[in-house]
Amino acid sequence: MAAPTAGSSTNLTLCVAGFNAHNQLFPNQPKDSHTFIPLTLPSQPHPQTLRLLFSGWASTAFVADSTLHVIGWQRIAHTLDPNLAKGLHSGQGDHQAFYGCLSADGNPYTTGPNAPEILRQGNEDSPKLGFWAVAGNGSLAVTFKQAPDGKLAHVLQFSSQQEFWTWFRDPSAFKLDAEKQHFMLPGRPLQLLAGTGTFTLLMEGGEVYTWGDPRYRSLAREIADAPAERPTLVDALGGLKIVKIAAGGWVGAAVSEDGAGYIWGTGSPGGGDEKAIEPLRGDGDVMLVELEDEGEVLDVIDIGVGEGYLLVVVEGGRLFGVGANRNGQVGLGDGSPEFVEDWTEIPSGLGFRHVVCGPKASFVFRDSESIP
């Protein structure tokens, strides 16, 4: 599963916490970090820009200036054309390795466990892709890259990567199932993310669509009138201008333009209430993130979803976390509980701006001057 591409410049620093058994956060230091520590790439310690492309169980991919770095079980340091580097997005991978991303002009670039670089796939006649996402069950969804004035989104779904690449290499010879594989939606895609068995699509107009495995309230909608396998609007978010989505495991999340955060699904499928995230225990499909200070509700700026845990950035640059913390991914420090039942503020100062969660590791962008 991919992490949403997020980046920093000279006034922001990327800090990381969590699972590091494969050196995917800190090379040559296979210990987990229970606090947020600034990331340093040994081969490029002071890049002007640093963007996260992918976070997996064993490998992490970044773009530092014009170099692709993959650290952990997989190791790559590949210098790219600057124009290509700054447009890479939608990184994908599996438990072990990063295997590809998309360029700004819609071309897929892929690598392999032992490949020292990423290579463009297809040719000038190949389909141009806007976004792609791979779910934990192996299914894959893509959107076509639209013309600047395009107002109709084409969404395709495949049961596996093998099926996707068969289509991509020769679309004219592949018969798509119009009912189950090819969907047309009004608007322009802004984000496409995957969880364990679901997909979530955010449109530029703020609409949110979900489809896939409907267990654990993971679609945030009823499926009686709209089949689970078809992209369908989340009615509970209707009328809201959603500006960002996040997904991980069986949990989805959204942030609205007016600073409200919403979550749905479950952080512990089959695990019982003793391992359930308190904010997800409600009866509704979509729940509001309610964080207060002296009776005042705090606006949500950003939200990240990992495997069984969540992090939220709120107004004032404060950071709160909840859920699984065995590897320190919530960032509460040494001695903190392995499971954080309810929202808890991370006691490491202010200046948080953005957050992205991988399966067991967290990435936060902070004001550089706020870091001790």
TrEMBL record:
Q: Which SUPFAM superfamilies does the protein's record reference? A: RCC1/BLIP-II
Q: Is Repeat there in the keyword field? A: yes
Q: According to the record, where are the RCC repeats?
A: 206-258, 317-368
Q: Which domain of life is it from?
A: Eukaryota
Q: Does the keyword Repeat apply?
A: yes
Q: Which UniProt keywords apply?
A: Repeat
PANTHER family named in the record: OS09G0560450 PROTEIN (PTHR22870:SF408), REGULATOR OF CHROMOSOME CONDENSATION (PTHR22870)
Write down what this protein is called: RCC1/BLIP-II protein
* Source organism per UniProt: Extremus antarcticus
